[in-house]
Amino acid sequence: MLRVWYSEDFTLQLPEGHRFPMRKYRDLREALVNACIVNETELFESPEATRDELLLAHDAAYVDGILSGSLPERELKPIGFPWSPGLVRRSRRTVGGALAASRWALEHGIAGQLAGGTHHAHRNRGGGYCVFNDQACAALHLLRECADKVRRVLIVDLDVHQGDGTSSILRGHEQVYILSLHGERNYPFRKVASTVDRGLPDGLTDIDYMKVLDEELDRALGFRPDLILYQAGVDPLASDRLGKLSLTHEGLKQRDRRVIGFAHQLNIPISLAMGGGYAEPISDTVRAHVGTYEVVREFWPRIP
To answer: Selecting from 3.40.800.20, 3.40.50.150, 3.30.420.140, 3.40.250.10, what CATH number does the domain 4-299 have?
Structure first.
């Protein structure tokens, strides 16, 4: 049984000319519903994470600076968004939705959120359009709240940009395995070591990408995860202006089949986050995110 979390707060009002494709969140929701891939009855409002939940992965001074709007401009600038009450709501709901989705996935096999994958947020700072780290919060929360069911969490991060924040927060945590496939010459230019990092060359195509992914999923199997958090960024797409890789739409769906099929076959709960997507036109990004949920329906058909 699928549940997907979403909020209108994800579509933040930005200054005119801002490069972040904020409309993709609303466009994705509409595309999924209009194509009958996700029903309205399967969509739930992402709750706002509490301060205590944010403190699972972040320092109190940083959290309070964001919540109150008192964070110095020099620390806000790397995030890439101006501070506003809307930014606070959006950031809290991104984490709250990830927590809700991971809890649901643990009980029912799968869930997702039409946002998230904010993997550039570190313990004491944000960056790269990421304020709070949703997957780090979810991993730490489930390991504490559901210790009888979750002893090992596998984070599969397939955004084209390496998740430096996730790796810095969870570095050395023996109960978390982070697998990252990313552009070697892409942002962030100073990487933070994950459990496994596979830096990919510019222009990599579908076939070679799948070879690397298959190798690493086979290796991750030895970790015996109880939960998978999947960062399904679609910026490896060839038309993505920030990606530098050359995957096709079908290649992205094959990638998703590998990860989602891996979870389904082994009966491992999986929770999905959107991750990045900056294609031109933006409809390419939306189409790619829709493709992820088309793959979900191949393994978890809608129950009438």
So the answer is: 3.40.800.20
